Amino acid sequence: GNSVTQMEGPVTLSEEAFLTINCTYTATGYPSLFWYVQYPGEGLQLLLKATKADDKGSNKGFEATYRKETTSFHLEKGSVQVSDSAVYFCALSDEGGTSYGKLTFGQGTILTVHP
Amino acid sequence: GAVVSQHPSRVICKSGTSVKIECRSLDFQATTMFWYRQFPKQSLMLMATSNEGSKATYEQGVEKDKFLINHASLTLSTLTVTSAHPEDSSFYICSASTRYEQYFGPGTRLTVT
User: pLDDT tens digits for A42-57?
Assistant: First the structure.
């Protein structure tokens, strides 16, 4: 079956530091990959996605590249802000490039950014 | 953007009682709604998928008689935890899908004493 593994947190950084959160997956076929973010007290929000190998998803300064050869989708940001403090979830779906169907999630990584 | 609400946000109930959690899509009609359960420091685990007017489809290992799901309309789904026990204490999250994207509610913290 499908599975997603994220680096364990929590991750604590100073403002303007470089961020990497690792994500690897196991899936049959060619899944679509997603990063979701959950701010305190709010629901998960789609941050970015990639639907095929070598695609790069990007949003709000965050990027992730779909690497089929290493089955990875690592999240990166060059300079984090305090407002980026949240929980980040990597996820996959094997239902055709959208996030509307069943999602398999990683365990989430708590990010805290200090001023 | 699309908003999904859950009510209540927190609930404490006694062992043996039942509790109902509502999930509403506020500004769109959802073709499908999902219910997830999240344990501390663990990922979201899909419990069931529901479509309006149809019986819910439960994931393997989820007791359908214990976790009753009703999808009464295109904007409302409810999860009832029947005869709750302390091991049912968890964070329950719903989501609602259009044809293109899935939108998540803020979650409900259930504590069974």
Answer: 888 999 999 999 999 9
